[in-house]
From TrEMBL:
It is found in: Membrane. It is a multi-pass membrane protein. The keyword Membrane applies. This is MIP/aquaporin family protein. It comes from Hymenobacter bucti. Gene3D superfamilies: Glycerol uptake facilitator protein (1.20.1080.10). The chain crosses the membrane at residues 9-29, 41-62, 83-101, 121-139, 151-170, 190-210. Belongs to the MIP/aquaporin (TC 1.A.8) family. PROSITE patterns: MIP. Keywords: Membrane, Transmembrane, Transmembrane helix, Transport. Its main location: membrane. Pfam families: MIP (PF00230).
């Protein structure tokens, strides 16, 4: 049976909420206990992405990211009429997740907000590059050419884990406007917030272009055309 739009939106709310609860929650826990470290936080993001994909992917696709939804739409693999409802569901989920994290955070905590380490310009470049690679991997491994299943979730989550591990110290490795806007809103810190909206959107559009250039086409007169 095909999931209804209501079921898809519920899945996106839940998935994005738990992305924030376990991802940014790991940041807040490390602030208090100092026992996770940067590697532990990166692992938390990678693991929760894997769990969300495997648990909710068959319902909504487990986008949990407005940039990913827009990327799928730009690639012609997602209906335009569902883009706004999906994005709104993701923003609501992120807000709920960040609110839950706030209940555990110490006073003055930024709730896992993403902030540039060396200026907005560098952060923009890092976020653009990270989101480009994430979206390109997503598009490639979810194409009909590849076999679906656990390997898809592992590949995407490993990409998130690696990018958080390497890019986190520079920009926070958000790659997700909802993930960045929710902590910014609840903590009241909007430093370079535009970077974490504009760079992921630019990154996914570049990934869609690259994906089209990488798509295999049958050679005229070759075996595929006979």
């Amino acid at each position: 049976m095909t999931p209804t739009l209501r079921q898809c939106l519920l899945a996106e709310v839940l998935g994005t909420a738990f992305l924030l609860i376990f991802g940014t929650g790991a940041v807040v826990v490390d602030e208090q206990a100092h026992n996770l470290g940067h590697g532990g936080v990166a692992a938390a993001f990678g693991l929760i992405v894997l769990i969300i994909i495997q648990g909710l992917g068959h319902v909504s696709g487990a986008h949990v990211n407005p940039a990913v939804t827009i990327g799928f739409w730009a690639a012609g693999r997602f209906p335009g009429r569902r883009v706004l409802p999906y994005v709104l569901a993701q923003l609501v989920g992120a807000g709920l997740g960040s609110w839950a994290v706030r209940l555990l955070a110490s006073p003055g905590s930024l709730l896992g907000a993403t902030l540039p380490a060396h200026g907005a310009g560098q952060a923009f470049g890092v976020e653009l590059g990270l989101t480009f690679w994430l979206m390109l991997v997503i598009l490639r491994v979810t194409s009909s050419y590849y076999e679906q299943g656990l390997l898809v979730g592992l590949t995407i989550s490993a990409t998130v884990w690696l990018e958080a591990l390497v890019g986190g110290p520079l920009s926070g490795a958000s790659m997700n406007p909802a993930r960045s806007l929710a902590p910014a809103l609840l903590s009241g810190n909007f430093t370079a917030a535009w970077v974490y909206v504009a760079a992921p959107l630019a990154g996914v559009l570049l990934a869609v272009l690259a994906d089209r250039l990488l798509q295999l086409k049958p050679v005229v007169g070759g075996p595929a055309s006979t």
